[in-house]
């Protein structure tokens, strides 16, 4: 009669050291590849995001191969032992590793589905910033205030993620200016339009047009310019430059900012400050 | 050599473009009014083409040649008595990239579609691309002729047309034979935490030399062809740049391949400097005060110009700044990376 008892795999110190060494080499290799690719991408101009796009895929491939190599060549487990390992892993996931496992699966989904890529500007939960890394466990963002935020990958299943540029360097920027209702609105729109189209940061093409819109509010008017910045890293500079130049020109034509309106009481009208 | 023959030599390589313009003029006489835009890089031969069109149609054309940014609308006033074919060279001088800087251009475009004349205009490629995206200038010019890059043979024909047969001596030299296809170089990389610089070795490939060497293996190549292949590569097919490189390399009546320098420019500029370079590239030539007007009071144009000159990108003559022809190729590549030219 055949022996059906499952043999627990024996792992000696040498095997552990070998496995750790392989993991360490894989880690170093990933760091090196990441460094080289980022170095190249930062010099690639408009292809920056395209070059960085391969980073997460490369990481998961290297880590996946490392995992396979350890199981097949260092631990040399048989199928029965793998089943046992799978069972233990399942129990581990059930007890406490489920978040880590969800993060890894989230990372794989992000890599293949590409809801965002390294280099994109995204809004995830309460955070907004440029994606600098998509790791095994977390996505790292740099916010406009230069904070490094580490968002767990499983968030991709739990909440919507907005990518402002979806893998291209240009992104739309919405710029609002509020003017007094009595100001010459046609002139103001012309100035804002020219401020956008002459900006050093603007990017215009048939697929990336710009527009200036007007909306009336009770005591002021809102002019809204929608235009693309040539590189998402200049988002705030673009907004600031257009606003500054537009206001500088508005002053020459007597176009004023909306006034603060204070109601003094029934029948007494309003007072502008 | 008479004057007409001299002018004709300047437009070698533009036969197809001239034929297109002549057809449009002939169609106009039959009642089809299609304005023409001739579009090309700096030094690509736009003015030579306009000169040739004027020469070929002396009784039909009137002409305005702009030489700097328009400051007075009278400069572009089209007289009633002017002829029915109207030539305007360097239309990039009709606008300035600032708020309120499109007034004269808009007036001109309005008259171009309502005047009953045919307008043959020339435009800087980078100005045209910008204007076509932001104000759709292409709508006003149904016939758009983009000047092509020259082939090696066209450059050779164009340059040699200025000399008698066997006037120039093409000589091989040892220095050229020593030039390497693969050149080892070192990149100085700064390790910030350690504040140390390490030199990382890398290689560059001289593609034009590689092409010449491969050609030489296949068949017997004349030294003359090697020289023009090199000029073609360095000038990137731009005939004006090719002529300037030829003049710089020629030790009359001898020219040697090693004298044709493929200068590479490691452009190191911040964004504002790059934008000023973009304006100069788009305008052909521009004065200091005009640049200051575009950039606004917050920028020191003098300092920026100093940096651009120091890197050999910009030259100046009689108060005007212009792109140095030998740097044109590197500048365009750099500007494309920054997405400043579209």
Q: Could you describe the 3D structure shown?
A:
The complex is a heterodimer of chains A (273) and B (342). A five-stranded antiparallel sheet of chain A has the order 4-3-2-1-5. In chain A, strands 6, 7, 8 and 9 form a four-stranded antiparallel sheet that branches. The model of chain A has no long low-confidence stretch (mean pLDDT 87). Chain A is built from seven helices and eleven strands. The N and C termini of chain A lie far apart (98 Å). In chain A, a hairpin with a 5-residue loop joins strand 3 and strand 4 (148-152). Chain A has 273 residues and is of the alpha+beta class. Chain B is of the alpha/beta class. In chain B, the strands form four sheets. In chain B, strands 2-3-4-1-5 form a five-stranded parallel sheet. Chain B has a three-stranded antiparallel sheet with strand order 10-12-11. In chain B, strands 6-9 form a two-stranded parallel sheet. In chain B, helix 6 packs across helix 9. Chain B is globular and about 65 Å long. The two termini of chain B are 43 Å apart. The model of chain B has no long low-confidence stretch (mean pLDDT 88). Chains A and B meet through helix 6 and helix 7 of A and helix 11 and helix 14 of B.
